[in-house]
Amino acid sequence: MSTSEKLRVDKYLWSIRVFKTRSQASDACDGGKVKLNGNSVKASKPVSVGDKFEIKTEGRKWVIEVVGLLSNRVAYAEAVKYYIDNTPEDDKLAPAFVASVFQTGKRQSKIGRPTKKDRRNIEGFMEGDEEEEGK
C-alpha cells in the first residue's frame, strides 16, 4: 500500500481481525467503542502509523498501536505484524472469568429436561416397579 492512499479506521480494524465484518467495525466506531488517543473516531477517519486505539468488542478490550497499514484481510499470523497489542493482562483475561458466571439463557448439556432415551429408561423403570408391586 502506498503512503498517499488513505485507509479508513473500520477497514483497518477489519483487516487486522479485531472485528469479523467491516460493518461491525463501522458500527463500533459509530457507537463510540473505538477511541483514538482517548477521543471517539468516525469509521471514515484515516489511519496512520503510530495511532493508538482503544477498542471495546463483545469479547474483550483492546489497546493497540498501529505499526503498519493493511487494507486487505489476511491470516491472523500475518495480521498481528501490523499492530502492537498493548492491552493490560487484566483486560485480556477478564472475559474468561465473566463467561463462566454469566447466564446466557442456554441450558448446559446433560442438565435439565431428560432426553428421549432418559425418559424411556424412567418409564421402563417405573413400569417395572408397578409389575413387582402387583405380584
From TrEMBL:
InterPro entries noted in UniProt: HSP15, S4_RNA-bd, S4_RNA-bd_sf
UniProt superkingdom: Bacteria
SUPFAM superfamilies hit by this protein: Alpha-L RNA-binding motif
Biased composition (Acidic residues): 126-135
Comp. bias intervals (Basic residues): 107-119
Domain RNA-binding S4: 7-68
Region (Disordered) residue spans: 107-135
GO biological process: cellular response to heat
GO molecular function: DNA binding; ribosomal large subunit binding; single-stranded RNA binding
Keywords, in A-Z order: DNA-binding, RNA-binding, Stress response
Family matches, as CDD domains: S4
Entry similarity comment: Belongs to the HSP15 family.
Protein name per Swiss-Prot or TrEMBL: Heat shock protein Hsp15
